Amino acid sequence: MQNQSLVTEFILLGLSQNPNVQKTVFVIFLFSYMATLGGNLLIVVTISSSPALLGSPMYFFLAFLSFLDACYSTVNTPKMIVDALYEKKTISFEGCMTQLFAGHFFAGAEVIVLTVMAYDRYVAICKPLHYSSIMNWRLCGILMGVAWTGGFLHSTIQILFVLQLPFCGPNVIDHFICDLYPLLELACTDTYVFGLFVVANSGFICILIFSILLVSYGVILCSLRAHSTAGQRKALSTCGSHIAVVVLFFVPCILTYARPPSTFSFDKMVTVIYAILTPLLNPLIYTIRNKEVKNAMRNVWKRIMVVCNER
To answer: Which sign does the torsion angle of CA 292, 296, 297, 299 carry?
Structure first.
């Protein structure tokens, strides 16, 4: 599908045009990205190298979520870090569309994975005797395929509609990434209907899934009254981590997309939360109170040290 726009590149204003602030942004987000990539890939490697963890659907999906976080962070953050070094920040039309597609692709897949993880905890806590038969590896494979397919369809629908918009003049985006609402403001046509479509395709879906997840975790927490004290503590610890990640991811997304199609001054900071801060915090949230993952990480570290000493 070919776009008839005259614009070949966009100018990004970034988080700030102050040179001192840009230097601070460069340092902070460089270290944040390194920590995000390192933390999430560490979880992937730890779970993948531990048969006991990899054999559990919960940790299998946690590794999948960490992989998605690493990919999602890589879509936007490196470009933002490099742009902080330059006064003029540009991105080609093709690069902008690629960034938009990839961001919504990984985010869409992550939404489904978070839903799957909630279902996994529901089955484990509310139907423990049937857990192994329900959460079998065939179903896990199907759910992973659904996550990839759902993310792809969501992102493809978005990008096909954006490619229909003509960009014939203004090309300055008051943001540090290419996103839907800033692009709508630059289109040389009435975008009211498309704005409503964005609210339906992104905002309404976020609200719906977020509501379902909150109800699901509410049901899970209510069912804990029938468990032992030790079982309650373990389930609360696991569900607490999941709920924290769900809130961190969905609330900023709802603030961004579930509203009338326009841009606001706080959009950049909200984007920083769900695009940069959430992938950074997820590894900490999932591992800080998880003994199994921490023990597996120690084992991985011991193996690395043994290999280094042998050399």
So the answer is: positive
